[in-house]
Amino acid sequence: MWYLIITLVTFFISATVSAVGEIKKKDLSFWAYVCGFIGGITFILSWNNDVPTPMDVYQGKTTLEITYKDGVPVDSVVVFKDKEK
Fold first, then answer.
1. pTM (whole model) above 0.85
2. 76 — phi, psi (to 5°)?
3. Which of 4, 18, 52, 85 would give a disulfide with 32, using CB separation of 3.0 to 4.6 Å?
4. Angstrom distance (rounded) from CA 56 to CA 64
5. Any idea what the Cα angle at residue 23 is, between residues 18 and 28, rounded to 5°?
6. pLDDT digit string, tens, across residues 44-57
7. Please, what is the average pLDDT of the chain?
8. What is the distance between the alpha carbons of residues 42 and 18, in angstroms, rounded to a whole number?
9. Residue range 6-30: average pLDDT?
10. Which residues contact 29 (CB under 8 A, 6 or more apart)?
11. 1, exposed or middle or buried, with CB in 10 Å at 0-12, 13-18, 19+?
């Protein structure tokens, strides 16, 4: 969640720096690119890798968590056995 907030803030700063550079006729494009680059990196880092893959299931790293209501299974979710992948 924090990665997404940082991404949005850096992209907003990048756009603001670019707009200010255009208004004041100064070359601030370097800083706009730097902020954009940082925003792109944080966006890449924000991808959630906590989703079990078929290989994780095959290797026995996951378990099936079943939710029952009145003795009837109503939902099931694949979760990691350990909290680490």
1. no
2. -145, 145
3. 18
4. 12
5. 35
6. 777 766 778 888 88
7. 80
8. 20
9. 76
10. 18, 21
11. exposed
